[in-house]
Amino acid sequence: MPLDLPASPPTAVAPDPAALAVTEALTARLSADIQARAGWIPFEHWMQRVLYEPGLGYYSGSLRKFGAEGDFTTAPELSPLFAACLARQVSQWFAQCAPVVVEFGAGSGVLAAGLIEALHALGTPVQRYAIVEVSASLRERQRETLASLPAGLAACVQWLDCLPERIDGVVLGNELLDAMPVCLFESEGAQVREVGVALDASGRFEWRAQPASSSLQEAVSVLQPLFRGAQRGGVDRYRSEIGFQAQAWVRTVGQVLVRGAMLLLDYGFPAREYYHPQRAQGTLMAHRRHRAHPDVLVDPGLQDVTAHVDFSAVAQAGASVGLDLLGYTSQARFLINGGILEVMAPLAQDAARTIAGVRQLGAVQTLLSEAEMGELFKVIAMGRGLPDEACGFVRGDRRGAL
Ligand SMILES: C[S@@+](CC[C@H](N)C(=O)[O-])C[C@H]1O[C@@H](n2cnc3c(N)ncnc32)[C@H](O)[C@@H]1O
Question: How far apart are CA 292 and CA 285, in angstroms?
């Protein structure tokens, strides 16, 4: 989602009455919640509500999020070649598990549509494509997108209201984990605090920290050796996040994955880089109108709030429920292993002749470039009952970095 846009101050939002009504209603609910809980709520709770409060949260509300008129553009929205490359990996796994995909957080549905078509073209059609989506408005959007598939292909799609009891197939999540609420902590000397949200004298939201629970202190103490150098480097207070919900999600879904793979793509790093002494302000960001900025407390419900993913923690969560780590690499390397350079060759010819061809090539450049999505975005695959030879990781596998 952050196409490496420079961090910039929040831009003024055009006073669209519908958007104003949303943020006013959500602000009133959050303020009442803070008052009811002795003046403070944990940031994790705040993030849950600004993103998923029924009807009002950023994802649960009906404002446009994806694409040029929205707030950010994800990889499948940029180019159909993204789905085409993922399809090669999924197709390989279909030889060893059921031809089923369970996609979590399918956004506009464009990845689902692209994958279904590409898998059909590869001769390994999906038997069932199940979508688990927490946002009712995005479900509608997915329905519209998938309705454009030929009827024979669209028939395999279904929406699930809850997690299946067992999954034999491929679990997929693109930019899913970054949208899960995180716990915010600060470490200063021997003290560990949990950061949350309170109200200032004029009723505006402000940051406030409280002593951390013993379980949070324990979790931070495991990470402390990674960022200890920050204090030697003159940083008094180190602030960062822990994605407990993302880890719990991996464990829960990993447990029901009886055979098959879990493929997760997102922006983030291994723990050593995530909790680097120099990353003393963490990775929390708001995204709005294609600008990234750090002021996540403004205009609840009108901007996306995200944190990067700690892929070491994701791998550990998978291992704790018996999943094998099948691969970890950059998005660029995964797509190149998936044949993006060969698939784009005809586009290069087109680019010499048409504007659409130039645009397509530009999108591929964004997906692969180290300065854009190619390096910041990573791909991790974990699985059960599959051989350790996933084609998307055949070159440039970085499992050792986790
Ligand atoms: C940043 S968007 C990415 C959308 C899409 N995958 C894409 O790449 O364009 C995150 C998506 O995850 C969904 N989501 C967040 N938590 C979820 C969960 N626990 N289960 C299913 N979907 C979830 C959100 O509603 C949203 O659709």
Answer: 6
- Torsion angle defined by CA atoms of residues 308, 313, 317 and 320, in that order, rounded to the nearest 10 degrees: 170
The predicted structure's pLDDT at residue 17: 87
> Residue 351's pLDDT is what?
64
Pocket perturbation via mutation, ligand 1, pick of 102, 110, 133 by most ligand atoms within 8 A of CB: 133
How far apart CA 295 and CA 286 sit, in angstroms, is 7
Mean pLDDT, residues 19-40 taken together: 96
Q: What are phi and psi of 248, to 5 degrees?
A: -65, -40
Q: How far is the CA of 180 from the centre of ligand 1 (A)?
A: 8
Each residue of 184-228: pLDDT tens digit? Answer: 999 998 899 999 999 999 999 999 999 999 999 999 999 999 998
- Mind listing the domains of the chain with CATH numbers? 1-181+241-402 (3.40.50.12710)
* Rounded Cα gap, residues 88 and 77, in angstroms: 18
What residue ranges line ligand 1, CB within 6 angstroms? 1, 59, 66, 74, 76-77, 104-107, 111, 132-135, 138, 174-176, 179-180, 249
**What number does the ligand 1 atom closest to the CA of 59 have?**
25
Instruction: Locate all alpha helices (DSSP H) within 307-386, ordered by sequence.
Output: 311-320, 331-337, 340-351, 355-368, 373-376
SS3 50: helix
| Distance from Cα 233 to the centre of ligand 1, integer Å | 37
- pLDDT-derived band at 7 (thresholds 50, 70, 90) equals very low
At residue 262's C-alpha, the angle toward residues 129 and 306, to 5°, is 95
List of residues 6+ apart from 273 with CB closer than 8 A: 279
**Nearest CA-CA partner of 348 in 335, 361, 339, 359:** 361
Residue 159 alpha carbon to ligand 1 centre in Å:
14
- % of the chain at pLDDT higher than 70: 93
Residue 26 reports pLDDT greater than 50: yes
- CA–centroid distance, 107 to ligand 1, in Å, is 6
Does residue 165 surpass a pLDDT of 60?
A: yes
Average pLDDT of span 112-136: 96
Spacing, Cα 104 to ligand 1 middle (Å): 6
Mean pLDDT calculated for residue range 280-291: 90
Ligand 1 mutation pick, 176, 263, 288, 373, max ligand atoms within 8 A of CB? 176
